[in-house]
Every structure is written in structure tokens, then in C-alpha cells.
Amino acid sequence: MQGQVAGQLDQTPLVPQGISPARTLGREDAPLQKRRAPRRPRRGTGAAAMDIPPLAGKIAALSLGALPLSYALNYVSALSHPLGVALMSALILGLLFMAIYNLSPGDIYYDPLYAVFTIFAFTSVVDLLIALQEDGYMVGFMEFITKEGEPYLRTAHGVFICYWDGTVHYLLYLAMAGAIHRRKRYRNLGLYWLGSFIMSILVFLPGNILGKYSSEIRPAFFLAIPYMLVPCWAGMRVFSQSRAPTSCIPHMVQEEQRKGLLRRPVDLVLVIYLTLAGFFTLFRGLVVLDCPTDACFIYIYQYEPYLRDPVAYPKVQMLVYMFYVLPFYGLAVYALIVPGCSWLPDWALVFAGAVGQAQFSHMGASMHLRTPFTYRVPDDAWACFFGCNLLYALGPHLLAFRCLQWPAFFLRPPPGPPAHHKKQH
Fold first, then answer.
1. Which DSSP helix (H) or strand (E) runs through 289?
2. Where does the EXPERA domain start and stop, copy by copy (predicted)?
């Protein structure tokens, strides 16, 4: 009934009472018609339409299907063999893709990442079930995965990457799929997810191969190969999307880029933070490389003994920080000093997602009961450890927020000579 009423309203011209339709086409009443036209009810929308992309209902329904499915599969005897787990996982993902294709072919043609986000939303629910079961909050759901499929998910690091994937990634998948369905832009969300997803892969897969669980690699491990290829393809599609338009006029850009660093206190604080975070990143990289100095020895035994854990995840994490995040911090300092570095807002989002995921997993695993007691954070060093690592996680997010809120300094300057340079005659 509401759709019929909206349709009738769309077909009825807006004519003010007491004025003939012919007069509405005149010059005097044209502005009135233009002012009232945007108030017409839109077909299929509520009274207060929002620009925020809605969470995709179909995706949420399909992903929550992991609950009964995982409970039923937990009692299938064929899944007591590692090869059976791998084949069943591949079969489920294939059937899920076919279901998505039949339900939303138009969305997939518009953006193939719609199918990717739907499948990953399903696996996010599976990961959340694994984490809740390993922590004892539920029983009888995903035991076949952790026993015969991927036993390294039972580590403290594995539990926390499952928590992150089942919460943060899951919400991102729903939001991005909803944006595709409504044909809206999701570039910023996609960049944050891309950094988070890549960081998880860069640490988790090498840690499985190099750590103490390297002898327990099962056939299900090779299902991670598509997970290594998807970020490359998804990253190219996300970066190729157009940026959100800004309200910065050329005069505003010139005025902002004329300011020195001392006249921009927020950027000055960020430069100081990035410099200190860079030294901290280098220091922890040297610690896991067995640097013989007294400072490294004291730190690894008294402040962060988790770096000695034989699971290898913390060592790989610190090396990824040193070889990837540290160069970015140096480039970000340069971009905060030299105007016109238009690449910084995008990459700040990518590294914010990467560092956020990494610090969540690292901090959680350092204090989790699955980590042996000798490798957990000592009680007397807990405040120092938590404060330093929390600041390390928040800094890239503050940098990304600054770049998105006030982008004028990073925009390319308009062509022509600068406004403040005038020739003297």
C-alpha cells in the first residue's frame, strides 16, 4: 500500500493550491517548483534516508547460516580426517558462491567484490565460533576444524585473529556489501579492510610454517592460497574507485600549504609521534633478531617475553613491522612536512587497518591463557606494555583521521604560480 501511494505521488505534478498548471511553468513560480520538487517521497525509501551504506540483509542471513551448518558438520564422521575437512570446506564455499550468484546476480555484475565480501562474511562467522569455542563460551560447533583442519587456530594468536575477523571484518563486509547493493562508494572502508586483511595473512601464514605447529600442516592449509591472491585483486579494484569529493577550493589549498610545520600543531605532534614510533618499531625488530645489547635483553625478559614464544607469530609480527611499517612512518613524516603528497590519505587508511589488526592480536595473545605463563606479560610490567602498545595502535588511526578530515595540505596544488610569490619591479 505504501509503495502504491508513493507511486501515485510520483506521477502527480506538484501544483500549489489555487494556481493553474499552466502558470507553474512561468518564470515567477519556477523557483517554487524547484524548491518543492526535492521533497517528493522517494520510491522504496523511508522518511529519513541516510547516506551511510546499510548492512546487507541477505549477506547477514547467509552468514548466520554458519551456526546450524557448523553444528551439524561437527557430528559427521567423515570430517574426522584432514582431507575430508579440506574437501568439505571447499564444497561449502562453492555452494555458497552459487547461492550468492542466484540471489544477487545484478550486484555481482556491478561489482564482483560483492561475492567476495559475502563469502568472507560467512567465514567470519565461522572464525567467531572458533574463537568462542576455544575460550570455552560454547561447545560442539567447530571442533572438527581445530582438531583436523587447522590446529594452529588453537593458539592464542589464532584465537585473537578469529575474534578480529568475526567482529571488525564481519561488520566491514556487511557495510561494503550494503554499499555495493545501494551503488554507493565504499573506498575508505575497503582500504581499511585491505590493510587489516593483508597484515593478518602476512603474519599468520609464515607463523604457521615457521613456528612449532609447522609439523601439523594439514590439507586445509592450502585453502589459504586464494586468500593470498584475493587481496591483490581486491586492492586494485578498491584503489581504482574514485575518491570522495572534497570541499577544498584552490585558495584554501594554497593557504593551507603555505603554513609551515610549526603553524600546524596537529601535524607537529604527529611527526613527533611517528618518529618515536619508528624508533620503537626498529627496537623491537632488533629484539626479535637477538640483538646482544643490554636494553634488548632487559626488554624481552622483563617487559615483553611473548616475543620469545616458539609459535613464531610475535617474531614474524615484529619483522613485518620493521620492514613494512617503519618505512611508511618515514614516508608519512615526509608527507606531513612537504605539501602535495596526495598518496598519504589512502595509505594512512591501509596502515591504520594493518596496525589495528596486528596490535589487537599481539596484545591479546601476550596476555591470553593459551600463551605459556613464562611468555606472558609480567604483572609489574603490564601497565607499561599496555600503554606503549595501545599508543602504537592509536597513532596510525589518528593520522588517517587527520588526513580525511583536513585533506587540503595533501591535495595537489593548483597549476600556476603560488599566490604569495609576486614579482618585484
1. none
2. 110-235, 266-400
For residues 197 and 257, membership in a common domain is answered with: no
Distance CA 4, CA 10 (A): 10
Of the three residues 240, 274, 309, the one that is the final residue of a domain is 240
Q: Verify that 200 and 270 share a domain, yes or no.
A: no
The x, y and z cell numbers of residue 128, run together, are 567467531
Q: Give 404 or 93, the one with higher predicted confidence.
A: 404
For the chain, the domain total comes to 2
The mean pLDDT of 343-364, rounded to a whole number, is 96
pTM above 0.85, yes or no: no
pLDDT(418) > 80: no
**Does any domain span residue 194?**
yes
* Residues whose CB falls within 8 Å of the CB of residue 321, separated by 6 or more in sequence, listed in order: 281, 284, 285, 358
Percentages helix, strand, coil for the chain, rounded to the nearest 5? 75, 0, 25
HSE (CB half, 13 Å, CA atoms) of 133?
21
Question: 385 and 366 in contact (C-beta within 8 Å)?
Answer: yes
Reported confidence tier of residue 403, pLDDT bands at 50, 70, 90? very high
pLDDT exceeds 60 at position 423: no
Residue ending a domain, among 187, 220, 240, is: 240
Q: Cell triple for residue 242?
A: 574514485
Q: Residue 38: what are its φ and ψ, rounded to 5°? A: -65, -10
Tell me the C-alpha distance between 211 and 352, whole Å: 27
Sign of CA dihedral 344, 350, 356, 362: negative
Asked whether residue 190 falls in the same domain as residue 79, the answer is yes
CA angle 240–242–245, rounded 5-degree value: 160
Q: What distance in Å separates the CA atoms of residue 241 and residue 179, rounded to the nearest whole number?
A: 13
**Counting runs of H as helices and runs of E as strands, what totals does the chain give?**
19, 0
Considering the domain architecture, whether residues 74 and 200 belong to the same structural domain is answered as yes
Cβ 307 vs Cβ 376: under 8 Å: no
* Residue 358 region by backbone torsions, left for phi larger than 0, else alpha for psi between -120 and 50, else beta: alpha
| CB-facing half-sphere around the CA of 116: CA atoms within 13 A | 24
Rounded distance between C-alpha atoms, residue 403 and residue 173, angstroms: 24
Residue 87 has pLDDT above 80, yes or no: no
pLDDT > 60? residue 15: no
- Cα distances from 316 to residues 30, 321, 330, in angstroms, run 67, 9, 21
Look up residue 321 and give its three cell numbers. 613491522
With beta carbons less than 8 A apart as the criterion, state whether 133 and 142 touch.
yes
Residue 97 cell numbers, joined = 558462491
pLDDT at position 11 is 42
pLDDT for 82 equals: 65
